[in-house]
Amino acid sequence: MGDTILVAGGAGYIGSHTCLRLAEAGFTPVVYDNLSNGWESFVQWGPLEVGDINDATRLDEVLAKHRPAAVIHFAAFIEVGFSVAEPGSFYANNVGGSLTLIEAARRAGIDKLVFSSTCATYGAPVRVPMDETHPQAPLNPYGRSKLMVEEILRDMDRYKGFRSVALRYFNAAGADPEGRIGEKHEPETHAIPLAIATARGERDKFTLFGSDYDTRDGTCVRDYIHVLDLADAHVAALRWLLAGKDSAVFNLGTGTGTTVKELVDAIERRSNRPFPLEPAPRRDGDAPSLVADNSKARELLGWTPRYSLNDIIEHAWAWHANGATALAR
User: What Enzyme Commission number(s) does the record list for this chain (predicted)?
Assistant: First the structure.
């Protein structure tokens, strides 16, 4: 046991940025990824072990080989629409795979895991900003799958002494300022890369889902948090567990809400040209406003977001403008 950390899903967007921060903090990230939604070119700060989190035998081999001190778990499906269309596949990967990973860690003598969760576990907000005591009533199988894993982790702590930190993200965005890695999904469903692609003439239009919400301009309010701020929080959560502290849950957001229209306006200013917007009806399950109360993470983890919305847009713009998203798997 030492400074090696197994990063399940470490070839993906947030996982790869966390590997960058882990390496900068003196850890050795070992990426465990089946590359179905990750990119081999994003694995730059430690070895890659190709495998699926549902493959217990492969997990046992990798854990025995590298003997990590802890696990960070990003390996999940994230597309809400897919979760509605194929809930069985979603639960098999997100819940079944998580349990297989947890049990493999326990067999290897590991009792510490940082879990990539989501504010989608809260469902429709009953108050904004949302703190960690907000009721959890997910609106779709994606959010429910993450909540189920949180509940598994609570039971594993209570009955087996397996400690964890669950990090409930709000809206991850941005890219490495040095352009080494960035946001790349297939298909892409996130607002900032879609808006940038539209501003660059790579898409015909940007679809604006709902303009009649009870917000300051009628569009949804979201809390956009830089991916490297998220990565820093994972390192802080890892240190929390390595220091022997108890299991915990933390929100990760800036505490500042931005409407979709404000986001589009900011990207238009960056591109110096307007781009077409297509109004569309509200999507099922879209809450009017999702904004984090991040005071618990600030106080206990000593974590403070460093990047502004302008930083997020600038770093994402540079990533896309440099053609980096054309990187092969």
Answer: 5.1.3.2
